[in-house]
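ok so I'm stuck.
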Amino acid sequence: MTTQPALTTSTGRRWLVWGGVLAGVAFAILAVLAVTRVPAVWGACAVIVVFYLAMVIVRLTVTSRRARLIALAWLMGAMAVVALVCIVLAGVLSARAVG
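replied:
not stuck anymore, here's the structure
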């Protein structure tokens, strides 16, 4: 798994593109969940923006290709985890409020 091109030979542009797609999908889902008035939704949006900005900074500043690609992969994974946890949390909290 660690020898795939996305972690060995990529420039990092792929990670930024797919990170942007992930952020867009997460924002779309979180925008729908914003009506639940769960404060974690806005917090998750802020964290996702910070993670994406960190990805851009890593892409532009880290010179070691391997370190850059691993950092980008971890940041994108962290973005996905934050979005997933917040979506589940908002669903659970809004279901409790209804029931």
